[in-house]
Sequence to fold (242 residues):
Amino acid sequence: MPNLSLAQGCSIVLVEPSHPGNIGAVARAMKTMGFSRLVLVNPKRFPHEDATALASGATDLLDNAVVVADLPTALKDSRWVVGVSARLRDVPMPCMTPRMFASQPHQDKHFPIAIVFGNEQSGLSNDDLAHCHQQMKIPTAGDYGSLNLAQAVQIVCYELSQASEMLETMDEHQPATQQDFEGMFAHWCEVLEVSQVLHPQQRQKMLIRMRQLWLRAEPSPIEITMLRGAFRNILRHILSKV
Fold:
């Protein structure tokens, strides 16, 4: 499942949600952050008008929600499972915050990912967490850790969506290959030579310093293309005057 964002590659799994309004609020929270895959494990009341009312425009997530009888069925296609719980259970597993989880490199082999939330009253049980690879805990002030289900989902989805945007931005600004850089720098040297701005005695030192300047800039492939287009126009202009 290549080239998926965290939002596209994640399912939000609610285990035995008791209030249909919370299901609707969760759908709304998910949609605002770009998530669409909602799985409900043995919901007490669903479908329900309260869910529709609180979804507030995210009823498409409710219409497409997958309803299953138990957690193993909900997770059968997942490759990585994270249980969200405020309490540290007896099951030994890595525990991290949503931001820490979002900052991890989620390679394609980890998708699909399931983020599992427990019942509003009791949260995830030890049996539920036994199905998870790791636990996620949302930091709160002091000892008061009571979050509404939809609030918890919103926080997790926000952190994951921000991480996805950051990764996309990083992808857009990946440095060019060394081969592309060398081609650009050779082109730049040609501009300098034709412009006759290089002093013969300082030429080598100046080129080394300019190389370091370009290397620090870490131009992307798109920027390399843009620069070489500008270099061609500069050379054309200079040579037309000769």
User: Anything to note?
Assistant: The domain at 6-172 is CATH 3.40.1280.10 (Alpha/beta knot).
